[in-house]
Amino acid sequence: MSCPKAAEQAKRGVAAPGRSEAADPPPRGEAPQALRGGTISRRLRIFLALLLVYLVGMGVLMFQMLADLDPRYRESAEESLVETAHLMATVIEQDVDAGALPTDRIAAIFREAYARRFSAQIYQLHKTRIELRAYVTNARGIVVYDSTGRALGQDFSHWRDVSRALAGEYGARTTRDVKQDPDSSVMYVGAPIRWQGQIVGEVSLGKPVQSFGQFVAAARGNMIYVGLMSALAVLVLALALSFLMIRPLGLTSDLLASLRTAWWRDADGRRRFSPRRAWRALRAQWRATGRELRDAIAGRNYVQDYVQQLTHELKSPLSAIRGAAELLQEEGMPPDQRQRFAGNIARETHRMQEAVDRMLELTALESRRMLQHQERVPLTPVLDELAAGARARAPRLQIAVRAAEPLAVEGDPFLLRRAIGNLLDNAVDFTEPAGLPDTPDIELGLVRQGRMVVVRVRDHGAGLPPYARGKVFDKFFSLARPGSQKKSTGLGLAFVREIAKLHQGSVTLDNAVTAHEGGLPPLEPAGDTPTVAQRRALHERRGALAELRLPALRR
What distance in Å separates the CA atoms of residue 504 and residue 326, rounded to the nearest whole number? Predict the structure, then answer.
């Protein structure tokens, strides 16, 4: 039968504050809210992540294609220049006389060609005259004809197109007319001029790169337009599918939820918008998306780990229940033993139920993307309230609260109280009363470090053994309690870690570092009864320190 408190817990999807492994579970048969919506939300985030990958891949592909346009057009222009140059060389060879180049005839041919006017519409380009350049060199590479008239008589034997053509090989080059202007580049292709099997000169034809650059610009513009339209169409389709298929927990609701967290009320009750809060919420949402995508990719291993851990925890109580049940079947068992075995069954059953409930609570918390409810939480009253509750449960322990200043954070007050309560209950479980006057056994501290608020829980118990350091936040890891030697479910500290992550904070637990290593009396007393100073020294050297770090609320 559920109670009002349990109903409230079920609404929140977590257990009540108290011990480190939590107290009252949600009603059976009812999954936590965060768990119910986790599957749909994860599908949405995976869908959007895949969409992002598609857009990035498409962008990279478009970039490569755009970068490849200019070389492909250059190759096409060079191929046509090769044929034209050899055709021109064949024409010139008809007028070669005794190895002498017909410069007058060459000049007349090009003069008549440049004088021609025509009208050719090539897609968006309207062409009216010949733009080819040409020059002819003799066998030594000296220019005997230049269509521009600027290089006549110059030695071009060092140019690649001339030197290789005179050697009977294929030669081409691209050179700028103006060094600082890349648009002034001209592509030249050379062809040898032969007479009676010997090379007596060469002819080079040049084409300004700018003449076909407009084709490259037009093709690049069309490709960008088609790519952007395709990306926009896919984006619109993706958004439409997200609204139609998973509208309740779609992208829009996530963004609106993030924006709602950016509004807060000041001391006068007026609502204000904080861009810092909005950015922090969006950043947390982005990180959650990455985590969920990673978990989904490795979901099988994630589930296997949970199953293995839970199976391991349930194996021991099941064995105890089976053994007790077999013994209860024996005839003639005394009533007191029968009562004891029945109590064992009830106790182990409760242990199993507690482990399952705690696992459901932790899973619900891990499935949360962001905090749904945030408000200003003063921490000093929370520490005082939790300390008073701990004193009532453990009256033999001295518990002190030391807050340097009143500090507040922004978050879920229920979850924060639960996290600090788990740390405090963990300290209570591992602390034995020292019986020293004016010396607390457990200390609750509150300090500010930069932009963070640090909640410290210092106990004076035996501390952590070496093998347990770094493992205390692992699921199902638990240490035996002093005195009873019983273990918990090992999920309380894991719960604290998840709460810290949701609040953009962190939590640590390690042996306390004492500043009193020198000048102390010997720890082993000379007689049978230790002195007060010796007991206090031993008390100060022991213990563990837990620190919960949370972003401080700006004043």
Answer: 51
For the chain, the structural domain boundaries read 58-218, 250-297, 301-367, 375-513+535-551
Residue 290 burial (CB < 10 Å; 0-12/13-18/19+)? exposed
Q: Could you read off the pLDDT of 266-314 as tens digits, one per residue?
A: 667 677 777 777 777 777 766 666 666 565 555 545 555 556 556 656 6
Cα radius of gyration rounded to whole Å, the chain: 42
Q: Which CATH architecture has domain 58-218?
A: 2-Layer Sandwich (3.30)
Q: What is the pLDDT of residues 172-194, one digit of tens each?
A: 998 888 888 877 888 899 999 99
Q: Does domain 301-367 have CATH number 1.10.287.130?
A: yes
pLDDT greater at residue 7 or residue 455: 455
**One-character DSSP codes across 510-523:** EE---S--SSPPPS
Q: What is the pTM of this model?
A: 0.44
- Long-range pairs, 156-159, Cβ under 8 A, ≥24: 159/188
pLDDT of 100 higher than 80: yes
8 A C-beta contact, residue 37 and residue 59: no
CB count within 10 Å of CB 422 equals: 29
- Burial of residue 500 (CB within 10 Å: 0-12, 13-18, 19+) is buried
Instruction: List, as one string, the DSSP characters of 65-81.
Output: HHHHHHHHHHHHHHHHH
Torsion, Cα 507 511 512 516, to 10 degrees, reads -160
* Helix, coil or strand: residue 338: helix
H/E segment holding residue 391: helix 379-393
Check whether 329 has a pLDDT greater than 70: yes
How many other CB atoms sit within 10 Å of the CB of residue 186? Answer: 16
Q: How far is CA 134 from the centre of its chain?
A: 59
Q: Convert the pLDDT of each residue in 346-369 to its tens digit.
A: 877 877 776 677 666 666 666 665
